[in-house]
Structures are given as structure tokens and as C-alpha cells.
Design goal:
two-stranded antiparallel sheet; 5 helices; single chain
């Protein structure tokens, strides 16, 4: 995962985020307040996967294959590059995504890009 911060003070926070992602099989688990802090510090995430689950016990692990990640997540955002995102979410959320972005297309689960290699999950 590459993070683009808003200022030089973000470098130490970036290292901390990466360490926390690597420290647990599920990656870095945060609540919504922490997510807001994360969002204020960075204006771009590249090659990162953000997974939302109602219950922490249902979080997938980073070693799960892509279909398992999608199946276990209540919502999944994968930053493919600087301008492309994969979104798996409830219909109401997908409708909001479609309203906000100009180019949106549906991708069947079997046609997902290979997220595991792109995001360093090589085990």
C-alpha cells in the first residue's frame, strides 16, 4: 500500500499505519473515528484494500483469496491505482458511488482483477 500524505508530518504516521497493517493477519483494524483521522491525513491511497465488517470477528485475513475477501466483507474498497477503485457494497452504497463518479461499471465476481498480487498478499 502506498499512501500520499498532505504534509511532511504524515511520514511518521504512514510508517505507523504500514506497521499496524503488517502486525495482524486481518491487517489494521480501526473504528470509524480512526478512519476519519486516516482520511484527513491522506489524499490518496494506492494499492490498498479497505474492508468494512459490522462484526470484527467476521473480518477476513490478508491471506484469504479475493472471492473470500469480497464474500466476508460488508463493504470493500480496493484502490487499484491513482484513479481506479473496486467497490463491493450494499446496493444503497453502490447507488451513492454511481451518483458521485462519472465512470462506473459493474464487474462480475469472476472477472475481478487479481488483488492479492497487487496488494502484497503473497502468501
Amino acid at each position: 500500500m502506498r499512501l500520499v500524505g498532505l504534509d511532511d508530518e504524515t511520514d511518521a504516521y504512514t510508517a505507523s499505519v504500514c506497521d499496524r497493517v503488517d502486525a495482524r493477519p486481518q491487517g489494521w483494524t480501526i473504528d470509524f473515528d480512526e478512519l476519519e483521522v486516516f482520511a484527513r491525513r491522506f489524499h490518496q491511497v494506492i494499492d490498498g484494500i479497505l474492508v468494512a465488517c459490522t462484526e470484527e470477528a467476521t473480518l477476513p485475513v490478508r491471506a484469504d483469496d479475493d472471492p473470500t475477501l469480497v464474500a466476508k466483507a460488508d463493504m470493500l474498497l480496493a484502490a487499484i491505482d491513482s484513479s481506479s477503485w473496486l467497490v463491493s457494497a450494499p446496493e444503497a452504497v453502490l447507488a451513492r458511488v454511481e451518483q458521485r463518479f462519472r465512470v462506473v461499471r459493474e464487474v462480475p465476481l469472476g472477472d475481478l482483477p487479481d488483488l492479492s498480487l497487487r496488494h502484497g498478499r503473497d502468501y
